[in-house]
Amino acid sequence: PISRRRRHIGNRSNPNPNNCLGVFGLSLYTTERELREVFSRYGPLAGINVVYDQRTGRSRGFAFVYFENVEDSKEAKERANGMELDGRRIRVDYSITKRPHTPTPGIYMGRPTTVGSSHYNDYYSDRYDDRDYSYRRRSPSPYYRRYRSRSRSYTPRRY
DNA sequence: GTTGAGCGTT
Asked: Which residues make beta-bridge pairs with A23?
């Protein structure tokens, strides 16, 4: 049985149309502004996100472009794929991930800023997705299970 | 302006 999420985003080699385009093979010097100049030709953009290396701060050579309308996204993918930008032939595909998600009501699902239940957040942050988010209880993450079993191995202290 | 497959939390 195929999950609803998988059906929605398609697979890696053949992603289904959606508002977000992944742009790959970029020059390390291509900026968000350049991308905006190119992609806004096809329709109003909701945002652009160049992915940078966390340590060096340099571009990792790919980016994500969000369109307001899927139709524009489709158009842009067709037209911009294979286009040359800053001396690089870029590849444009529908995004299969949606890391920067819309703000969630209630609890924060991202990586915790302090030590805490990271075994929980590390597990679920990768599985989180806007469209199948729910407050439904799920089975404990493997990290949590390991954490639990480790805890149990200690002899509880009594005072 | 290393390079060059890649799907991300600055």
From this structure: A63, A92
